[in-house]
Write a structure and sequence with these properties.
The chain is mainly alpha-helical. The model has no long low-confidence stretch (mean pLDDT about 85).
Length: about 90
Amino acid sequence: MDDPRMLRPCYQCLLRDMDPEAYKKDLAVYIEKIPESAKAGPDLYEKRLKTCTECEKLISGTCMSCGCYVELRAAGKYGRCPEKRW
């Protein structure tokens, strides 16, 4: 089984120090590594992301309520919105 730490982005890295294209690719890799049994279905994932894009707490893909990358949080079956919107 993959190391569960590999499912999380690096919280000690600054976005300004990362290549934006590599960042997008890395986020996609993290999402892909979530086991299928732990992933939200595609419809639920898209519904969550739509809710996030309508939220004033979303800034550059990051939730300002909790600091998560919303695309990563929304991908997990048991992910929860800190604002209780989904």
